[in-house]
Amino acid sequence: MLPTDNRTDHEDTTSTTSATDLLDRPIANRARPRALIIAVAAAFAPTLLAPATAQAAGRKNGKGKGAKADTCITVGSDETLTLTETTTATCLTIEEGGTIAVPDGYSLSLTVNGVETGSELAALTDGNGGVATAIAAGTYTGTIVLNVAEATDVTYSTLTFPFRQAIYVDADGVDESKSVPSDVVGGTVTDTAASDITLLSNGEAFNGVYVAGGGSYTLTNPTIAFDGNGRCDFIGYGASVVGTGSGTTVVLDGANISNVGVVRTAVIADATANVIVKNSTIHCADGVVPDEYPSAGTGDTRYMITVPWMLGLSGNVRATNLLGASTKASYINSSISSEKWGALSVDGGSYCTLTAINSTIANTGGEGYGSYAIGNVTEHFLGCTFDVGDYALIHWGASAHYGDSTKSAVSSLNSSLSLGLTSAELDDLPVQSTTVDAGRFMVMWYAAGSVAIDGGTRVNTGETTFMCKAVAGTVTVDGSDGATITSGNGVLFQLMDTDRPSSVTVSGYPWSSETTGTYTEPTGSPTKSSSWTTTSSQSTDAKGTFTDIALTGDFYNSVWGGGNASLQGQNLTLSFTRTTIEGVISASTAKHSVSTITKTEYRQISEVTNTPSAVVNNGVLVTLGAGSTWTVTGTSYLSALTLASTAAIEAPSGKTVTLTVDGTATTITAGKSYTGALTLTVS
């Protein structure tokens, strides 16, 4: 999510409906009985793709070689059985301390009745990222395939992850030597596409479909259900579908993906690939975090498997992730949800493009975000429905747009993003407006970037709508086509000092940092900066522009400045055109309900109350443009005020509003500008 502390409806109409219903039951991580998974697999057409090589070297009842499909394999305590080829059997027993190994350059995966199972990750503290997998001790019965495949080692930073996947695709098509065919149940698989297949796993860090090296692949109506932890969603280790590499294109159409597990991500787009998901349902639920993981978490992305609590969130799996340079991920007529953490994420990349059209983006566990944006990403949300626990968007430097899925807008994206939608598909997409229902905030900015809201977009937040942490966040709202903004706590825009604790560098651990920092509320009063100008707009201002809309709520700037956190000051610049505003617009003093915030108090992040107070280093510049009226509901402190000739400032019915400039009573006149210490008082 964060970088290291440097900042680092698709209705299923196939014959698999009853099995999908089983898979969709909420089951805690690692609690799904193996028997259930196998029963689910049996509900599908039991067409098992033939392994590349069968009857390979093995042990019959622990003795000799040449295991056959109707034999049992036993690996005794402290014994090592080395397999050089894919081997089949009807039962497998691995006693505690027993090991099945393969030669260097190969990987081992076990499937039972078409379900990948038994794989266990090493501890995170093993010095290698905890990436090695072994087949767990126990007795397995059924159609057993011990798959020996060529290794697929994928490097991320200083770690190398031994990928294993049901289907490996490159520019030449499916590479069966790097695949685990026995995990593919039913359907049809070719070099360019797969349809109606089922991929199941209750092991750890097993991937579904991995497309790389310029490959192009279409998955139609796949069902994928993984239950068990992954390891790294910055590279997709343990993800259901990964598309990576220049020239790579992956299309999922009618997919049903349901995962349970720590960073057991559904869809990963990486390294300039183009991943397109349409008519699909995706959901990822939390797993159980390994005991050796630091209790406060880490921002070291090689090891980070929980959302950094400094975002005011908890959770350990995000449904999707968009990575790399200039990578594209698009979701059309689909449902994407996570239990907590995040539904649509962009992380660890640069100049990527994330798009959602006529899709539902949700968190089902009461916490989380709709999308995350970092690295100059561009995000498009047209005709979407957000139902998120905390934030529609966490903003680390990006451009995001929320609007209607008009025919022209969708057609334009279809061309510019190579979505591949046919004329019939474009015609079938209805024009919809976007609705955002966020439990707390619409947007939280941690870095400069823009947000545009237009069309018939309706924004409803439980608390403050726009939350900006002392950066040049900008929002433009055009209500000419019916867009509305409603704040649950009556605050529309809060500009404030950052309250995000930092990570702390550690030694003696594989990870370089732990998120054990503490936020401490400043005491006293801010000191006036001699170098900061509050009466004119600055390049670092946070800005809001509102046109043709009726607003009810307050705008506050509580940034201390004066050298606090190296920030001399910051202004909030607001412009209104043909807009009515009813509320307070003011510099303020903001306070948390607690004086310190640690992980225990993580839900206190961004939770402040405001007391309007005179401008110090926190200028508030207001322009009331043509046809705009501000009804002042309480004392407001500004540093600059400009009124168009057709603008007005009013008080609520039965009250009067007065203006003082530098302590002198001044008449409010349309068409004039005022600067200095401005106080608007209602009496």
Write the SSE topology:
Elements: H1 17-23, H2 34-43, E1 72-75, E2 80-82, E3 87-94, E4 99-101, E5 106-112, E6 115-116, E7 119-121, E8 133-135, E9 138-150, E10 152-156, E11 159-163, E12 165-170, E13 173-174, E14 184-185, E15 188-189, E16 193-195, E17 198-201, E18 207-211, E19 216-220, E20 223-227, E21 241-244, E22 249-253, E23 256-260, E24 267-270, E25 274-278, E26 281-285, E27 320-325, E28 328-332, E29 335-338, E30 342-350, E31 353-357, E32 360-363, E33 369-382, E34 385-388, E35 391-403, H3 407-416, H4 423-428, E36 435-438, E37 441-445, E38 449-453, E39 458-461, E40 466-469, E41 473-478, E42 484-487, E43 491-496, E44 504-505, E45 513-514, E46 519-520, E47 542-547, E48 550-552, E49 554-557, E50 572-577, E51 580-583, E52 585-591, E53 596-597, E54 609-612, E55 620-624, E56 629-632, E57 636-643, E58 648-650, E59 657-661, E60 664-666, E61 673-682
Parallel strand pairs: 1-3, 2-4, 6-17, 12-18, 16-19, 17-20, 18-21, 19-22, 20-23, 21-24, 22-25, 23-26, 24-27, 25-28, 26-29, 27-30, 28-31, 29-32, 30-33, 31-33, 32-34, 33-35, 34-36, 35-37, 35-38, 36-39, 37-40, 38-41, 39-42, 40-43, 41-47, 43-49, 47-50, 48-51, 49-52, 50-55, 51-56, 55-57, 56-58
Antiparallel strand pairs: 3-9, 5-6, 5-9, 7-8, 10-11, 12-13, 14-17, 15-16, 44-45, 46-53, 52-54, 57-61, 59-60, 59-61
Helix pairs in contact: 1-2
